[in-house]
Design a protein that fits this description.
By secondary structure, the chain is of the alpha/beta class. It is 30% helix and 21% strand. 25% of the residues are buried.
Length: 191
C-alpha cells in the first residue's frame, strides 16, 4: 500500500490483504474484487471511500494485477480467475477497458447471439480454463469482447449472482447486520 491518507487510520482501515495478487492466486484465491482509479497518471488499484478520492490507500497498478493473473494462468492452465471490477469512476472506464483488452487472449468470450447466451453461472468449467472472467457494474456489457455485467443488463440475463454488495454505511453495527442478513439468505439456519 502507498499514498495512504487519513493518518494511521488510512492504512489500518484500507488494508484488505497483506499478500500480493500473485501470492493470493498461489494460495487458491480465484475471485478478486478490483477497484481502479487514475492517480498520478496511472491506473491504480485502491481501497478508499468513494471512488478513490477519500481516505484510504493505493495499491498495485492495474497492469501489475493483470500481468500477475496472466502469468498465473500461463503457469496453471487448468485454472481460471474472476476479476470483479467495482467502484469505477466514470472518467476512467475507457482507460480501464483498454488496459484489460491488452490481455484479450485471456478473456473468456461468449459469441452466441444475444437470445442464445447462457447466464454466467451456467458456463462450463472446461470453457473457462486458462481464462479471466471479467465482471463489473461499470464497464461495458459485451460478452463477445469478454466483459460481463454482474447485474441485469441486455446480455447478462440477470443470472450472475455473487453476493459482493456492501452496506453503504459507516456505522459498524449496520454493516455487521447487513452482512449477516445476506449470509442468512444463503446459509439458512446459521444466523
Amino acid at each position: 500500500l502507498h499514498n495512504c491518507t487519513g493518518g494511521g487510520f488510512g492504512e489500518a482501515a484500507s488494508r484488505a490483504q497483506r499478500a500480493s495478487i500473485a501470492e493470493q492466486l498461489r494460495m487458491g484465491v480465484r475471485y478478486l474484487d478490483i477497484r481502479v482509479a487514475r492517480a498520478d497518471g496511472q491506473l491504480l488499484c485502491y481501497h478508499r471511500t468513494g471512488t478513490g478520492t477519500g481516505p484510504g490507500c493505493d495499491g498495485a497498478t492495474l497492469d501489475e494485477v493483470l500481468t500477475s493473473v496472466d502469468t498465473f494462468l500461463t503457469e496453471n492452465r487448468g485454472k481460471f480467475v474472476i476479476l470483479s471490477f467495482t467502484h469505477i469512476p466514470d472518467a476512467d472506464v475507457s482507460a480501464i477497458q483498454t488496459m484489460i483488452n491488452r490481455h484479450a487472449n485471456r478473456l473468456h468470450k461468449d459469441s452466441a447471439e444475444p437470445g442464445e447466451r447462457k447466464p454466467v453461472n451456467q458456463f462450463i468449467l472446461e470453457d473457462l480454463r486458462g481464462k479471466m472472467l471479467v465482471v463489473s457494474e461499470g464497464l461495458m456489457d459485451a460478452p463477445d469482447a469478454g466483459f460481463y455485467r454482474k447485474t441485469r443488463g441486455p446480455n447478462s440475463l440477470g443470472a450472475y449472482q455473487i453476493v459482493d454488495d456492501y452496506a453503504n454505511s459507516k456505522d459498524t453495527e449496520a454493516v455487521i447486520e447487513d452482512q449477516l442478513g445476506k449470509w442468512a439468505r444463503h446459509v439458512p439456519g446459521e444466523y
